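FAQ: What does a multi-protein file look like?

Like this. Sequence, then tokens, then the next protein.
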Amino acid sequence: MDRLCRSRGDGKVPSRSYIAPVDELADVVIRARRGDRGAFAELYRRFSRAVHGVVLARTSYQDAGDLVQDVFAAALQRLPQLGEPAAFPGWLMAIARNRAIDHLRVKRPLDELTEIAVPASRRSEVAQVLAALRTLPEAYQETMVLRLVEGLSGPEIAEQTGLSPGSVRVNLHRGMRLLRERLGISEEADDQAG
């Protein structure tokens, strides 16, 4: 569960150094569109965790890495079709969702616990949490996986998905409430444990 539900894994708050103003992001997208491989590498660095989380919300852990690569390959190919460079985050997440859905049409997700680095004593707990996460409505599922699995903060999720910060807060709050219900955890018990 440590890797599954890390806030960063190292106890530190996620760095905000990659959260960039919209104008700067648009500049990187424009440079990547012109064929600047360094600019595209920067887009990969900024958005790969979010793409991984979106894909992981729908597919197995073992397939997610390959699908992330597929998403970025498709994005590179389709980048000239992107109308507004500032719309890149939402556009990229749409590609990720569609790739994951296409993948599921061909292959149903398998038990991915063999690939996740989890102590044997916590495997059933991790399996239970993953199963419960996957039963949440799609909007909550994505934001919850990005928060709990990828360790992104609310503002980072907003920037990387194109959602408003308010929508992310609502999705996280409602998603956490539903997740607690599905896991049989009362909010009072959770408050006492924390």
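And here is the next protein:
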Amino acid sequence: MIFVRLLPVLLSFLLLAAHFSRIDLLLLLILALVIPNLLFNQRKWVARLLQTALMLGSTEWIRAMLMHISQRKVSGSDWLRLAIILGILARCPAFSALVFQGPSLRERYPLNHQTEPLKTRNIAILVTTAFSYPYIFESRYGVIPPIFHTARVRIFYRPQIPP
């Protein structure tokens, strides 16, 4: 049952490995294939390391999306479909980092949720909402919709509910 819960994490790292293989970054390719092997170790730092790596992977997808969008704009090609696909790919690692917040994985990787100053779900929402779609709206229509301004405020000032 644990394998099923960790499947999004494994698939996210495989997608990152394929991405790094495509752009010929051998060291990052090896890291993306080796880091999931740490899941066999049942320590607290393993969960945090994997969550951090997944968030960095999400930012890499966002960086790749912005780079490809700028290339498409220079060539005059349509870039909206590319932005939607890579935006979805940027969300996959960010949301797969949330599986460590579930009850079964919380038991396997003992995390102290009382002392965490910033929750992983807040970081996932921040990375995926604040950096991908506002850029698409701004570059396409010239303005950022007001919904994205209020979403950023709610992310930072969300009241913490004790478990």
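Q: Is there any per-entry metadata?
A: Some entries carry free-text notes. For the entry above: The CA atoms of residues 84 and 121 lie 22 Å apart.
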